[in-house]
From TrEMBL:
The keyword ATP-binding applies. It holds the Pfam family ABC_tran. InterPro entries: AAA+_ATPase, ABC_SmlMolc_Importer, ABC_transporter-like_ATP-bd, ABC_transporter-like_CS, Mo/tungstate-bd_C_term_dom, P-loop_NTPase. GO terms for molecular function: ATP binding. It comes from Rhizobium sullae (Rhizobium hedysari). PANTHER family: SPERMIDINE/PUTRESCINE IMPORT ATP-BINDING PROTEIN POTA, SPERMIDINE_PUTRESCINE IMPORT ATP-BINDING PROTEIN POTA. This is ABC transporter ATP-binding protein. It comes from the Bacteria. Residues 4-234 form the ABC transporter domain. Keywords: ATP-binding, Nucleotide-binding, Plasmid, Transport. Belongs to the ABC transporter superfamily.
């Protein structure tokens, strides 16, 4: 289909940077998720690619052709917005056909392409319905069909499922991924939901303050976070502060090997890497609560210094509130000044198939 190249793109609003010197190559047929908190520049970047915002600096190319100065209607892109942006005075057919009519295509071709688009998104025979008669999920399918019917080289999705309930969101993202792979269309998907990014993406771009902290496939992002921010933003992560002396953490609960220069560090470990054992020693960790999710339990524990951590345990072991436990980290990361300075060998074995909403 197409290759997207973003070279040193920046966007300023007054004296503030929304996006700062951003560069990215998206391969033909690849689905890349832009992931980050609100205000990180995700949607602004997507709008610049779609032509709805002009970059303050840098260039955007599709198949090596510079499209930076082109208006949205002249770009080989299709954009699906969070708000659906459907016309309520038109039926489904005419919503989807609108762009084709602007291009003055023959009526017979318009009819064929609209019907094909409706079939693609699972809405055959819905053409005569008004958009107000559709559910939120059906409206989002119409918005997707309206973009796909124009046969764009690049598909842009700006948090399209944010307003939907969790089960519908999960089902639609699977359908979108199936459609994207079937068409082989190059896609950028903006989300602040880590579960969506991990489920959909070939690669994830973790954005912060208009720039990137890490760009990598989902499993690498999870198992090998390069910054403390990425570690805390993807999945659930426990953090404790410790002083490192002679290659050993001096934290009373986690005397871990950290072969780096002496000084303060942040130790991090996933809930599934935290093993709990019963303890009779005073001033150890105390169980705050235990939640049974069927396939596993999430146990909140309070350390003596007041820190609260999460551990993932088998479902058949019940941990009573107030019980004394000894936590052991089987895999861990160490960060200093937001940068990874050490990773235990076992960290690379952590699994990405976690139930993120539960931890």
């Amino acid at each position: 289909m197409a290759r997207l190249t973003i070279k040193g793109v920046s966007k300023t609003f007054g004296a503030s940077f929304a996006v700062r010197d951003f560069s990215l190559d998206v391969d033909d047929g690849e689905l890349v998720c832009l992931l980050g908190p609100s205000g990180s520049g995700k949607s602004t970047l997507l709008r610049m690619i779609g032509g709805f915002e002009r970059p303050s600096a840098g260039s955007i190319l599709v198949d090596a052709k510079d499209i930076t100065a082109l208006p949205p209607e002249k770009r080989p892109t299709g954009m699906v917005f969070q708000s659906h942006a459907l016309w309520t005075h038109m039926d489904v057919f005419n919503n989807i056909a609108f762009g084709l009519k602007i291009r003055r295509m023959p009526k017979s071709e318009i009819k064929e392409r609209v019907e094909n688009a409706l079939a693609l998104v699972g809405l055959s025979n819905y053409g005569n319905r008004m958009t107000t008669q559709l559910s939120g999920g059906q409206q989002q399918r119409v918005a997707l069909a309206r973009s796909l019917v124009l046969e764009p080289k690049i598909l842009l999705l700006d948090e399209p499922f944010a307003s939907l309930d969790q089960h519908l969101r999960e089902r639609l993202r699977e359908e979108v991924r199936d459609i994207q792979q079937r068409l082989g269309i190059t896609t950028l998907f903006v989300t602040h939901g880590q579960d969506e990014a991990l489920a959909l993406a070939d690669r994830i771009v973790v954005m912060r303050d208009g720039g990137t902290d890490q760009i990598a496939p989902p499993d690498v992002i999870y198992r090998e976070p390069k910054t403390e921010f990425v570690a805390g933003f993807i999945g659930s992560m426990n953090f404790v502060r410790a002083n490192i002396r002679n290659g050993i953490s001096e934290h009373p609960d986690f005397p871990l090997a950290v072969p780096v220069e002496d000084g303060d560090a942040v130790l991090a470990f996933r809930p599934e890497a935290l093993v709990l054992s019963p303890s009779k020693t005073p001033n150890t960790a105390i169980v705050h609560r235990s939640i049974d999710f069927g396939t596993h339990r999430i146990v909140d524990i309070d350390l003596a210094d007041g820190a609260r951590l999460k551990a993932m345990t088998p479902p058949d072991v019940d941990w009573t509130r107030g019980s004394l436990v000894e936590p052991t980290a089987t895999a861990y990361f160490a960060f200093r000044d937001n940068k990874l300075i050490h990773q235990s060998a076992a960290s690379g074995e952590l699994q990405t198939n976690r139930v993120f909403g539960h931890v």
